[in-house]
């Protein structure tokens, strides 16, 4: 039996539907991310799943029982909710706030037994907040508060925790820490965690299942790898960036006229791609095996990429294609890609560019370049950082343009 199930569920406010046709089956111990643009209905879904908002239509089942028929106290032993609403805890310490999570087990005003007290401290420890136990909750930072609220949820000893935007207002360290804690709870304690999150790449890197909500319905549901790249971009109407499920990253698009050819491989080019994109320099790249990190990133950025099939030596077709592109650009970058038999054509591309009089920036040292390119190593432009390469991107579109310009300068 599924931990949580919804059948033909419509959620909304005052009978007005916000999201319709929700059919979910959620497995014990999974980490589930609810993603979608502002106003899509994520909070409405989470409140409904928490039993705080009655469904407009359909039903929610927890372990096969209709949620609307489960008694509050019984429910609070199964389900804990962490909402965005700010909690004013008066003069309560973090320990006190966490201890209120014991109410399903003690009664709301019930006294905590010795075992309860140990459990409260354990919960604070699990979320790395034991040091905060005796501090006033109201005096904590947002990140610290969020951890204490997580501890309070844990103190209920629930099977399911529902969190609405648990990382809002947190700095990056606390965002990562909260996600790491949630992951640990699902892995080690088998707790099912359902959360909504603004940081889509963080969510997709952490969750087992992503549920995409838009335009009043669930547009996609599945593992982050299965949820399509285009679906994620479409979810937020993003057209200035791309999402890559395999890499779990969002990349800003680059549609600039290519003036640089980057010879990459094994991730050596990724930093350079991003730096050039940030600086509005168009480029093309190759020759990359389709399963290479650089290839994934280049395609997500949306630049022309010369590719070869995985686990094959780079062939003549790709080589010719790259040669043609190099002729159309005014700068070649040798990123320091590792050279093997399978990509020996890449070394050849760089060498030929040098012999042709192209400007070539290199990230290798001179000793290595001598071994690879002989005396041509002296003709290369040595760069230690991606930013140094930028200084050599002079905006001339093509090698041809540049030659023409040099000719006219020389004849003056
Ligand atoms: P999200 O969490 O995805 O940003 P919400 O679930 O908060 O979206 O909101 C979805 C829609 O429901 C919005 O159009 C919002 O205006 C509406 N809504 C939210 N809360 C209420 C409420 N209490 N009463 C009526 N409408 C609401
Ligand atoms: Mg919301």
CATH topology heading of the largest domain: Rossmann fold
Largest sheet: 6 strands, mixed
Tally of distinct domains: 2
User: Count of DSSP E strands?
Assistant: 19
Written description of the protein model:
The strands form four sheets. The protein has a six-stranded mixed β-sheet with strand order 7-8-9-4-10-11, with helices on both faces. A six-stranded parallel β-sheet has the order 16-15-14-17-18-19, sandwiched between helices. Strands 1, 2, 3, 5 and 6 form a five-stranded antiparallel β-sheet that branches. The protein has two domains: 2-238, Rossmann fold (3-Layer(aba) Sandwich), CATH 3.40.50.300; 253-405, Rossmann fold (3-Layer(aba) Sandwich). Helix 3 packs parallel to helix 6 and helix 5 (114-126) packs across helix 6 (142-155). The protein is of the alpha/beta class and 412 residues long. The chain contains 16 helices and 19 strands. The protein is elongated, with a radius of gyration of 28 Å. Helix 10 links the parallel strand 14 (258-263) and strand 15. The model has no long low-confidence stretch (mean pLDDT 89). The chain has helices at residues 42-49, 72-78, 94-100, 103-106, 114-126, 142-155, 172-189, 200-206, 229-235, 270-278, 293-301, 316-327, 344-355, 366-373, 386-390, 399-411; strands at residues 4-13, 16-22, 25-26, 31-35, 57-62, 65-66, 79-82, 160-164, 192-196, 209-214, 217-222, 241-244, 249-252, 258-263, 282-289, 305-308, 331-334, 360-362, 381-382. It binds adenosine-5'-diphosphate and magnesium ion. The site of magnesium ion has 3 residues, from helix 1. Adenosine-5'-diphosphate (ADP) binds at residues 13, 18, 36, 38-44.
């Amino acid at each position: 039996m599924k931990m949580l199930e919804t059948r033909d569920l419509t959620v909304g406010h005052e009978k007005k539907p916000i999201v319709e046709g929700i059919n979910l089956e959620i497995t014990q111990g999974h980490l589930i991310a609810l993603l979608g643009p502002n106003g899509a209905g994520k909070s409405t879904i989470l409140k409904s799943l928490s039993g705080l908002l009655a469904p407009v239509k359909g039903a929610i089942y927890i372990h096969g029982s209709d949620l609307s028929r489960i008694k509050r106290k019984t429910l609070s032993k199964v389900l804990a909710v962490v909402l965005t609403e700010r909690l004013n805890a008066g003069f309560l310490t973090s320990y006190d706030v966490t201890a209120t999570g014991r109410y399903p087990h003690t009664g709301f005003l019930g006294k905590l037994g010795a075992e309860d007290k140990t459990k409260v401290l354990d919960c604070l420890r699990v979320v790395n907040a034991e040091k905060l136990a005796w501090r006033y909750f109201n005096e904590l930072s947002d990140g610290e508060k969020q951890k204490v609220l997580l501890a309070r949820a844990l103190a209920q000893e629930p099977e399911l925790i529902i969190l609405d935007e648990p990382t809002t207002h947190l700095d990056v360290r606390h965002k990562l820490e909260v996600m790491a804690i949630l992951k640990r709870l699902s892995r080690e304690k088998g707790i099912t965690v359902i959360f909504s999150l603004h940081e889509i790449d963080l969510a997709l890197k952490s969750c087992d299942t992503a549920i995409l909500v838009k335009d009043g319905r669930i547009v996609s549901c599945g593992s982050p790898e299965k949820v399509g790249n285009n679906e994620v971009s479409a979810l937020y109407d993003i057209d200035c960036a791309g999402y890559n499920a395999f890499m779990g990253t969002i990349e800003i698009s680059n549609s600039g006229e290519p003036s640089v050819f980057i010879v990459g491989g094994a991730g050596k080019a990724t930093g350079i791609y991003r730096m050039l994109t940030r600086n509005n320099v168009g480029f093309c790249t190759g020759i990359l095996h389709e399963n290479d990190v650089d290839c994934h990133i280049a395609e997500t950025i949306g630049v022309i990429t010369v590719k070869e099939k995985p686990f094959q030596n780079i062939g003549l077709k790709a080589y010719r294609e790259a040669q043609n592109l190099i002729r159309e650009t005014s700068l070649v970058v040798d990123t320091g890609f590792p050279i093997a038999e399978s990509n020996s054509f890449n070394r050849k591309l760089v060498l030929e560019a040098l012999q042709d009089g192209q400007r070539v920036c290199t990230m290798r040292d001179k000793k290595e370049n001598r071994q690879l390119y002989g005396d041509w190593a002296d003709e290369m432009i040595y760069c230690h950082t991606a930013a140094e390469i930028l200084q050599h991107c002079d905006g001339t579109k093509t090698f041809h343009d540049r030659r023409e310009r040099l000719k006219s300068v020389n004849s003056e």
